[in-house]
Hints:
The protein is built from 13 helices and no strands. By secondary structure, the protein is an all-alpha fold. It is globular, with a radius of gyration of 20 Å. The N and C termini lie far apart (about 45 Å).
Amino acid sequence: MNAKFKVSTAPHIRTSHTTSRIMLDVLIALIPTLLAGIYLFGLRSLMVVAICVISCVASEFVFELVAKRPITVYDFSAAVTGLLLGLSLPVTAPWWMCVIGSIVAIMLVKQVFGGIGDNFLNPALTARAVLLASWPTRMSAAAYVAPNYFGSIDAKTAATPLAGSGASLIDLLLGDVPGSIGEVCKIAILIGFAYLLIRRVISWHVPIIIMLSTSLLCWVFQGGGISTPLTALLSGGLMFAAVFMATDYTTSPMTAAGQLIFAVGIGVLVAVIRSFGSYPEGVTYAILFMNLVTPLIDKYVRPRIYGEVKKSA
């Protein structure tokens, strides 16, 4: 039998998963959460999200135009960042805050470091952290509004479940609790999670490990008004961030072992912040901290190259 070998340059492994296809899948997965946010908080939530998406796309286009780089707005990554940022904001966020957050996410976090694939922090989460530090009153739990179901724009403010509102598990699951636009309806988040798993855009490991470690440790610490692991799981933005933020390819480890360390680290940090810190949530800062640790994890937690001689002790 004669074998024929074809020699060519890399890449040698090809896949149908392009950047634009992956980002489009993420956008589709976020649609249930967006629709739930519009239903729960009214059309103003759509305005907040739309401003963030438009501002992110425009920021990327302008930066690449001025920097004379290839225009990449067609890969939908800027739209994904804008949608994630908008869904992580309270419905009361003013338009100028959405624009500032979008500029921070795209220009300062993503494009300055080289664009998609080169940023070491999650753009949407970093923008949220900057907004939280700059305008804490508008971004804090006190500024979150209770669902008004297409009611008036001036919905009443209320404490989030993590601030001691005493919401039932059904309310937490359905989203009948105060919170940011995209974090409250857990059913919508789970639908998006299932879609991403079916499309094989993400794996279950990082989100599930984050959820389990956070909920169990919060229950052990008995902090932040958490009475059961399920309450910890369904409260705040844990589930939204675990599914859509922590699974970012660029800012999470490459190996399975590294992802395990990454996910557990996020869970521990969230539980500590919720239980012993003055800030009731903590997911944003936990993920950003582990984003910074990711290069270190990738350096020391990597598989041995095939054929490499194992070092003796």
